[in-house]
Amino acid sequence: MPMLVVPGRSQALSGFRLSALIEKFPFPSGAIASMQSHHVHFIDFDAAYGDSNVSAVLQAAHEEHTPKITRAVAPDSAENVWAIIATLLRVPGESGAPRASIRLVSDNEDPQEQQSLTERQREIWVLPRRGTISPWSSKATDIFGLCGLGNVVRRVERGIVYCITFADGFEIPQVKLSEHHQIVNAGSDRMTEAVYEACPPASLIFAQAEPRPLREVPIRDSTADQELARPISNIEAAARQDESGSAVATTDAAVAVLARANRELGLALAADEIAYLVDAYLGSQAAADGIARNPTDTELMMFAQVNSEHCRHKIFRASWTIDGRAQEMSLFDWIRATQKAHPEHVLSAYSDNAAVLEAVQASSIREWAPLDSDGQRWALRDSGAVHIVAKVETHNHPTLISPFPGAATGTGGEIRDEGAVGRGSHPKCGLAGFTVSDLRIPGFSQPWEKATADVPFPAHAASALDIMLEAPLGAAAFANEFGRPAILGYFRTYLQRVPTGMPPLQPQDPDSSTAQLTDEPDMDCEVRGFHKPILLAGGMGSVRAEHMLKTPFAPGARLVVLGGP
Fold first, then answer.
1. Distance separating alpha carbons of residues 528 and 348, to the nearest angstrom
2. pLDDT at residue 253, rounded to an integer
3. Could you count the other beta carbons within 10 Å of the beta carbon of residue 521?
4. How far is the C-alpha of 533 from the C-alpha of 188, rounded, in Å?
5. Of 281, 241, 282, 274, whose CA–CA distance to 258 is shortest?
6. Is 74 exposed, middle or buried (0-12, 13-18, 19+ CB in 10 A)?
């Protein structure tokens, strides 16, 4: 089924941001006469809606590109379906026509034939990577469903189109701009986006891999030459080899198989973690624990995630030394020291997705609630004791590689954690903080930046300035779109050469072995700063007292995991 392509009605980027982007492109000054940008939206209709109805929606769009809705409408006609789509995709206050034609694009259509460009123009389409769903798409698709299009639209996605007009006299490179690495790096996020010359087919934009079957990793097999991961119908099938009475592999053989799975599945397990897993599935307690079988790829992936540094804080909990002295407390012990010294008013800490603090006069809090099932009459009622949820976390490396989405997902993860406290809580407000190296703003250098002006940023990472131009917007965008704004924040920069030892010594005279310090020594230094930034995402919320703690599970209980690891 063809997809509906709906261009935006205004510039996607401001003039300042377009000018900054042009400077990053690999063309000489003056080569680009102008560059325009606009969002483009892709509507993937449900197969049950039918080709004829999709064509009717396109016809309605051509007849009236900006329909006005003055009352609630049902998607019972092509005109109404288009009116809802156009209203949802239009920025409030926009009334102009889309910046390009609204059209249907099929899988067998030549992308180059869709374009109506002059010989001095080229287009770049920056879209989400194939097989991914952008954060914007997941939220927009939910909104489409809530507005009555759940049985009409399967998914909606968004990208940006840049139209470049080259100056007369400039010889346009005879290469695909979408394959030029400098253009790709400047105009897109390499981790989350892909670049095209024209609109790609729907099968590429909305491609989704089919779920793979559950697979077992045969660490208990006695044969060395076996497939690394074999499909099975269920977890119980992983234990059938033991029922057949076949020989069980040695510990060394099992470690070798799991080490191979560690490399090929990208689990990033340490040697001691591999040994732990082998003992769990192959050791003397395996039968008693009910797991005397091969592990599945899903179990290994989940173990790798929940046992990662992000979840378990193994480095923070590890023993450490300063100047050769073993420290009595781990870094995590120091973090917990404040709560240990002053536990008053702390109802839950270091045991859930966020902490819970006792609210002042928690039992006197009241709430508005509907009196009738139709929700037309509301009144204040006692809500019971309600306490405060508080959380702060970091999302540093993703923000270093990809500032806008890195900060956005950092904020989103913190909002998720606020709402996952106990048996359900309510996020209310948030904060976002940033610590980076010197900004080095062009034409606005600062005195303290001169001593480290020669320190480069890694090629794979964003600069401090790029981070501060993009990351605060990403954090704010996710928080605002979710309906939980960030109302607090901070911003710091630091980059400095720090002496690491004593200055070199010089003799008093050529015949003397007595040494003294020079007046202006060239001291050995190291550079300290925040090329890898700190993104601090935090927030507060509320939780009812009866929902504050999770329900304990009995050993052997079967759990359902929703979503990925």
1. 36
2. 87
3. 13
4. 20
5. 274
6. exposed
Calpha distance 523→514 (Å, rounded): 20
Q: Which residues contact 48 (CB under 8 A, 6 or more apart)?
A: 151
Write the CB contacts of 75 (distance below 8 Å, at least 6 apart in sequence): 81, 84, 148, 149, 151, 152
**Token pair 């964003």 is at which residue?**
462
Q: Which residues pair with 194 in a beta bridge?
A: 127
Instruction: Specify whether the CB–CB gap between 159 and 125 falls below 8 A.
Output: yes
> Please, which residues bridge with residue 529 across strands?
495
* pLDDT at residue 518, rounded to an integer: 37
- Where are the strands (E) in 437-557, listed by range? 486-493, 495-499, 505-507, 515-517, 525-529, 534-544
Closest CA to 55 of 101, 1, 114, 109: 1
Outline where 97-178 has alpha helix (H): 135-144
3-state secondary structure 271-319: HHHHHHHHHHHHCCCCCCCCCCCCCEHHHHHHHHHHCCHHHHCHHHHCC
Helix pair 251-264, 271-282: axis angle to 10 deg: 120
Beta strands in 183-288 (DSSP E): 193-196, 215-216, 230-231
Q: How many CB atoms lie within 10 A of CB 102?
A: 19
| Distance from C-alpha of 251 to C-alpha of 525, rounded to nearest angstrom | 49
Alpha carbon of residue 229 to chain centroid: 29
85: tokens are: 């789509």
CB 479 within 8 A of CB 493: no
d(CA 46, CA 471): 35
Q: What element of type H or E holds 436?
A: strand 426-436
CA distance 218 to 520: 66
Q: Give the N- to C-terminal CA distance of the chain in Å, as an integer.
A: 33
pTM for the model stands at: 0.73
Task: For the chain, list residues with pLDDT below 50.
Answer: 224, 245, 505, 510, 512-521
